[in-house]
Amino acid sequence: AEKLDSDRRLHPRYDAENHCHIAYGNRILVGHTNDLSIGGARVTLDNPDSHNVINIGTPCTVNFDTSNGVVEARCTVLRITNEHPFEIALFFTTLEQASRSRLEAYLKNQS
User: Residues 59-100: pLDDT tens digits?
Assistant: First the structure.
């Protein structure tokens, strides 16, 4: 995976693909991360209709597997792409210490 350039980001983003689940209300969306940072993720949804059932500003929980273990974060939907590849951008609002440590170690290995 490679580091993605962007001057406006608070945290460096990495091109990292990880299977993930996004839970909100009584729904679960399935997808995979495309890029990842300590502050959030860009996720491609596996079901193209999924982007129709979640809105910008929706609070949710995402979890994904890494080589360092499962990371879980509470987050907010920042952006939705309503055309192929049907992506959503997530901002991590709460990342417990254990998940943060796993994610930091995983991202360190991506650079």
Answer: 999 999 999 999 999 999 999 988 887 899 999 999 999 999
pTM assigned to the model: 0.86
How many CB atoms lie under 10 A from the CB of residue 27?
Answer: 12
Tokens of 93: 């609002």
Phi-psi region of 96 (alpha: psi -120 to 50; beta: other; left: phi over 0): beta
DSSP conformation class of 63: E
Judged on CB neighbours under 10 Å (0-12, 13-18, 19+), 55 is: exposed
pLDDT tens-digit readout, 13-45: 888 899 999 999 999 999 999 999 999 999 999
SS (H, E, C) 11-53: CCEEECCCEEEEEECCEEEEEEEEEEECCEEEEEECCCCHHHH
